[in-house]
Design a protein that fits this description.
This protein is globular. It contains three helices and three strands. The chain has helices at about 30-40, 45-60, 105-125, and strands at about 70-75, 80-85, 95-100. Helices cover about 35% and strands about 20% of the residues. The protein has one domain (about 15-125): Porphobilinogen deaminase, C-terminal domain (Double Stranded RNA Binding Domain, 2-Layer Sandwich). It has about 130 residues and is of the alpha+beta class. It has a three-stranded antiparallel sheet. The N and C termini lie far apart (about 40 Å). Pathway: Porphyrin-containing compound metabolism; protoporphyrin-IX biosynthesis; coproporphyrinogen-III from 5-aminolevulinate: step 2/4. One of its GO terms (cellular component) is cytoplasm. Belongs to the HMBS family. It is an enzyme of class 2 (transferase).
């Protein structure tokens, strides 16, 4: 359907929802054979990016109906670049933040949580209620 595309929105103009475009697969916890098979499908760079984004969303206690966006990616230097955004439900207030750090699971989860805590603090109580 590429013939129907009129423009591609750059990340700088519109952050996507958390984990947008990532595919998650679940399997039985006691099915070692299936878990081994599914591990071959894993894309580690994406898994780490989604972990950062989900840590951000979890800290904000967001849902699929909360106006929250987050995007983590690997920059040219191999570091994680994370950008996050929250908006009031009526769109009158938009708060943004960003983080940069090592592209490792622990560091990226901490970045996501820290970014979420910052925006919660800046937003104040009742931000998502308006």
């Amino acid at each position: 359907m590429t013939e129907n595309v009129t423009s591609i929105l750059p990340i700088e103009d519109m952050l996507p929802a958390v984990a947008q475009g990532a595919i998650g697969i679940a399997c039985r916890s006691n099915d070692e054979r299936m878990a081994d098979y599914l591990a071959t499908l894993n894309h580690e760079e994406t898994r780490l990016a989604v972990s950062c984004e989900r840590a951000f969303l979890e800290t904000l206690d967001g849902s699929c109906r909360t106006p929250i966006a987050g995007y983590a990616c690997k920059d040219e230097g191999g570091n994680c670049l994370f950008r996050g955004l929250v908006a009031s439900p009526d769109g009158t207030r938009v708060l943004e933040t960003s983080r940069k750090g090592p592209y490792t699971y622990e560091d990226m989860v901490l970045m996501g949580k820290d970014a979420g805590k910052e925006l919660l603090s800046r937003a104040g109580p009742g931000f998502f209620d308006s």
